[in-house]
Amino acid sequence: MPKGVPNKRHTGEFKQMVVETMMHEKLGYREVARQFEISGHEQIRKWERIYLLAMLDYLSRLHNVPICKNYNDIRRAKLEWPLYPSSVLPLCKAQPKTRSAVRDVFPNSIRHKWRSNMIRPAKPDDLARIAEIEVFNYRLKFYPIFQDDGFYFGELQVPAVAQRYADSLDHIRVYDDGVVKGFILVRSGEVKKLFVEPVLQGQGLGSKLLDYAIQHMGAKTLWALEQNTGAIRFYQRHGFHLTGEKRLEDGTSAYLVRMQK
Question: What global pTM score does this model have?
Fold first, then answer.
């Protein structure tokens, strides 16, 4: 390199953007090098390797399974990042240098993004958290409408709700970035429940859960409380429309309206 010309260093955020663009647009190393004006495509190959190792590193610790350094197997599997099927997670040991390489090449930005997109099947250990989220939402959103002290502060208790969901885990997906922050329940294409922890609403978590359910669980219809106009607008933004069909909510004079995609 000529004297006085500094070695160009790219930020971790830039490297992440390059790798993700290459993956999402299905570009080759040379194509993406030309697009981002990077001299030498070999370094992009290196960035991709570290990116995939970083993904494995995070996911392996999340699921408590040792990671594998053979990233070629991951590429061939054409996994839909970041919805990583745990059954494919390689069962072999990581090299100690992997984590330091991750920190050096992709500082924190990747892991933050993964944590913001973790949706997985519910497990028995999630039942209490799922029940908490539902109870808090019911009391905040529906008690002001129905004013039923006996139900909302008597019958509606976390242990009872958790027990009710015990046989429905196959139909539930949770948003988990280290803590379960929301869940969706879908049966036969119908969204039965969709709740996010109240203090965490407004961050797009409900949208991610609903989009996932539409793409992967066949969600195409639901019933919403007619008075819950915020929820109706939310579903309309995701392509659902009112069908004109109504029915009474059990034991109340309030109507539910049917929505379909």
Answer: 0.57
Full residue range of the structural domain in which residue 213 is found:
119-219
Same domain, 101 and 158: no
3-state class (DSSP) for residue 200: helix
Residue 226 in domain: no
Strand order, beta sheet including 255-260 = 119-121, 172-176, 180-187, 190-196, 221-225, 255-260, 241-248
Confidence check: pLDDT of 173 > 50: yes
Q: What is the mean pLDDT of residues 11-39?
A: 80
Return the structure tokens found at 29: 């190393």
Q: Hey, what are 223's tokens? A: 């019933």
DSSP labels, 158-174:
HHHHHHHHGGGGGGEEE
Residue 49 pLDDT: 75
Q: Tell me the pairing of strands 221-225 and 190-196.
A: parallel
CATH assignment at residue 192: 3.40.630.30
Q: Which helix or strand (DSSP H or E) is residue 56 part of?
A: helix 42-63
- Which of 7-21, 32-46, 204-218 has the lowest average pLDDT? 7-21
- List, as one string, the DSSP characters of 75-144: HHHT--TT---GGG---SPPPTHHHHHHHHHS-SHHHHHHHTT-EEE--GGGHHHHHHHHHHHIIIIIHH
Q: Work out how many domains the chain is built from and give that number.
A: 2
Say yes or no: 127 and 99 in one domain.
no
Secondary element (H or E) of residue 223: strand 221-225
- Which of 70, 89, 115 marks a domain boundary? 115
Helix (H, G, I), strand (E, B) or coil at 180: strand
Q: Does 147 lie in the same domain as 62?
A: no
